Amino acid sequence: MHDNVVFNNKVLPYFLLAPQLVITLVFFIWPAGQALYQSFLIEDAFGFSREFVWLDNFIYLFSDDEYWNSIRVTFVFSGLVAFSGMAVALLLAAMADRVIKGATTYKTLLIWPYAVAPVVAAVIWWLMFNPSIGILAFLSWTLGHQWNHYVNANEAMAVVVIASAWKQISYNFIFFLAGMQAIPRSLIEAAAIDGSGPFKRFWQIVFPLLSPIAFFLLVVNVVYAFFETFGVIHATTLGGPGNATRTLVYKVYEDGFVGLDMGSSAAQSVILMILVITLTIIQFKFIERKVQY
Amino acid sequence: MATVSLRNIKKTYSNGFKAIHNLNLEIEDGEMIVLVGPSGCGKSTSLRMVAGLEATSEGDLYIGDKRVNDLEPSERDIAMVFQNYALYPHMSVARNMGYGLKNQGLPRDEIRRKVEKAARVLEIEHLLDNKPKQLSGGQRQRVAMGRAIVRNPKVFLFDEPLSNLDAKLRVQMRIEIKRLQQEFATTAIYVTHDQVEAMTLADRLVVMNGGKVEQVGPPLDLYEKPETQFVAGFLGSPGMNFMPARIQGQALLVQGDHRIDLPDMAELAQWDGRDITFGVRPEHLEACSEAEADFHLKVDIIEPLGADTLLYGHLPGSDSLMIAEQPGKRRYTRGDVVPLRVDRERLHLFDAETEQRLNE
Ligand SMILES: Nc1ncnc2c1ncn2[C@@H]1O[C@H](COP(=O)(O)OP(=O)(O)OP(=O)(O)O)[C@@H](O)[C@H]1O
Ligand SMILES: [Mg+2]
Question: Total domain count for chain A?
Answer without folding.
Answer: 1
